[in-house]
């Protein structure tokens, strides 16, 4: 699946990231491939614990040392394989070409450093700018993420401002050096519903006004529907479906995706029970044989227990990892 | 509900003990601490039996003799066997340590639990008093007290208890406050249990575990404090073989007989180290979150 | 910030009162005639003078009045007179205290200069050989009686190697061994706390953010991690300062270093109770003030504290 390098910004190929824990080796990311094209917003979706955050951290090479390691695959960005770069080269990319924002802005910001200083720091470490200009830029950045009184906020400590504002600050920091790719790991999960929409607006704006591509990591399909151009669905360390957003919602081709869609409550659906997905997220240490989803899959058959499915094409730019879609396994399914 | 509370406590303490021991065994240093402490307790209890010589028996013509057979650690300034005195010193140290810790714990538990549970002005008064005692550097206050009331084992224990109880009271108090808000307490109260009963059967048993760490480390500090006081002549009275006194007399003869000073100080160091290692091990075992 | 300082200062006053009350109560129990304690052992004093002194000192009055008089004298800087020399105790202490302060400061500096780097390295290279050795070493240092360490140091460096003076005061060389003896335990504690604090802080999200910004390793370690890790370290140094002051009693006595500690120990042996009382008071009140200073430093490092 080699893609046109002119349009592709980030290409992750067969990434394997394993984590050593006291209970065993966790295969958080087990042969995962996804890509982000220029000017796109791509969603990486899955339940908590499916490995999506680890995939994001792998791109940034920010895995928890020394337990987390990229053990295989490549990450192509801007013509380079990030997995082969030295720490110094990677540092030049972090915060300047690729930025990341995290889920909890309260813990993600240094509690005893003023906000302005945290933004200035990002600017000054990558660009030859004097302090005063950096400070002015910081205030402008705050303005651009929807914080009008930038000067006042820049002089505050993180605990003094609201959660929504903190997340905007994080975005401002991420934008400090004009990156081409922004990774957003569950950016709205910790925020009030009313604030969530505002932050999503900011992110959407970023793509629109600056042409920055976004890799959005989330478990919330609602966000995906709203923001993303394409979606990759992850389960138990593997990509189980990938498609343009509309195709994913109108023609879900993996049972997991189907169930995810069913469990999103819709305003106009009858007020009966919410569909839930039976079972628990699988143990990434003892990965089930065969299809990783078969234990929770309502359609599982004998073959699913034995064979691990490949990604199979089901439409334009649309692939699914399910034996039902694989013509080689012609069995009566539904 | 009352029964449930007791059962909860008993169940957790039974399996917890096993988990704690397992965790301790995993750390070499903590295991050393545990074995040493147990050995020390045995030595302290059996001192009169296992001590090779009478710690008070003098042999003046041979005073200050360096280590040799049969006096493995040599003789002191009165010709007394150093090893025997160290062994009996263990009894003194353990005795003082245990008494200080248990009494401070007792007072601390009572004050802390009442303070934390009832709150109000009883809490305010108790904590103000505790704060005032904590405002002193502990040993300085102990020295001040001992200077005035005179040296004796009883006085040593007394002054060290006066100085230590606030630490236990504070910890028990914050534990009590946390426990007070828990559901099983509310349930017990709903069943009409009186404050005193709740304190006795529910709160105190559940508040103890973190205090165990404090108590273990406290043994180390108490032993160190007694040694210091005795060194200054403010602790136990000679000729009682306190390790601190032995360091003091060792000092007088430091050039002629360095074995005195070295052996007595070394045993204090290793003993305190053992309690600290054990305390650390317990901390790791009881609160895995803190484990590094 | 100023508001916070004023608030903390206000809280110190009841503590002062409590401390002085306890010292007063202790001193009530000194053996011997308090009048003689107060006016000194002058054999030529007539019985009428003693009676007059008794009345003047208010020793026939109820205890709480005696306490207020004691407090009043205290506030004016009157700590009574040295029983042996008759000089005001305050004078003796004013002479001796700065020397103890010098020793205390050098000890703390030693502890910080050794402890913080050792703790940082241990944290960054967790489980390495360095880490293991440092862990045991720091605990060992914290378990050693300082009076014993002092004696061992003298035996080794002053007697056997003849590198340092056995005792005394005056030149920086005189400070070397006492500083080591006094500061070793604190160095051990600072090392352990720095290590555990750094380990905890390094795991926190904002350190990951700092790395994600592409900042240099040194900036992440010092400007972000260490500064946050310092918060509990500063607290523990404040708490341990009390042990340091107490330790000074022992170390000064052994090195014949003329500070408050030595003054107090000699006074104890000579049953010079007014001096003992004065020393305990001064040392304790300094401890209270140091803790106040620590609280202020803490609030400076961690601005969240002011808003509690």
Q: Could you explain the architecture of this structure?
A:
The complex is a heterotrimer of chains A (334), B (292) and C (308). Chain A contains twelve helices and twelve strands. Chain A has 334 residues and is of the alpha/beta class. An eight-stranded mixed sheet of chain A has the order 6-7-8-3-9-10-12-11, sandwiched between helices. In chain B, helix 2 crosses helix 3 and helix 8 (195-231) packs parallel to helix 9 (243-252). Chain B has 292 residues and is mainly alpha-helical. Chain B has helices spanning 2-26, 28-50, 82-118, 120-135, 138-149, 153-180, 183-190, 195-231, 243-252, 258-286. Mean pLDDT of chain B is 85; it is low at 1-12. The longest helix of chain B has 37 residues, at 82-118. The relative contact order of chain C is 0.13. The mean pLDDT of chain C is 86. Chains B and C meet through helix 4, helix 5, helix 8, helix 9 and helix 10 of B and helix 1, helix 6, helix 7, helix 8 and helix 10 of C.
Brief characterization of the structure:
The complex is a heterotrimer of chains A (334), B (292) and C (308). Chain A has 334 residues and is of the alpha/beta class.
List strands and helices in order, with pairings:
The complex is a heterotrimer of chains A (334), B (292) and C (308).
Chain A: E1 8-21, E2 24-37, E3 41-45, H1 52-60, E4 68-77, E5 80-81, H2 87-93, E6 98-101, H3 105-108, H4 115-126, H5 131-144, H6 150-154, H7 163-175, E7 181-185, H8 193-210, E8 213-218, H9 221-227, E9 230-235, E10 238-244, H10 245-250, H11 255-263, H12 302-306, E11 312-315, E12 318-320
Parallel strand pairs in A: 3-8, 3-9, 6-7, 7-8
Antiparallel strand pairs in A: 1-2, 1-4, 4-5, 9-10, 10-12, 11-12
Helix pairs in contact in A: 4-5, 4-7, 5-7, 7-8
Chain B: H1 2-26, H2 28-50, H3 82-118, H4 120-135, H5 138-149, H6 153-180, H7 183-190, H8 195-231, H9 243-252, H10 258-286
Helix pairs in contact in B: 1-8, 1-10, 2-3, 2-10, 3-4, 3-6, 3-8, 4-6, 5-6, 6-8, 8-9, 8-10, 9-10
Chain C: H1 2-28, H2 34-39, H3 47-56, H4 63-75, H5 89-124, H6 129-143, H7 146-160, H8 172-202, H9 205-212, H10 217-255, H11 260-269, H12 273-301
Helix pairs in contact in C: 1-12, 5-6, 5-8, 5-10, 5-12, 6-8, 7-8, 7-10, 8-10, 9-10, 10-11, 10-12, 11-12
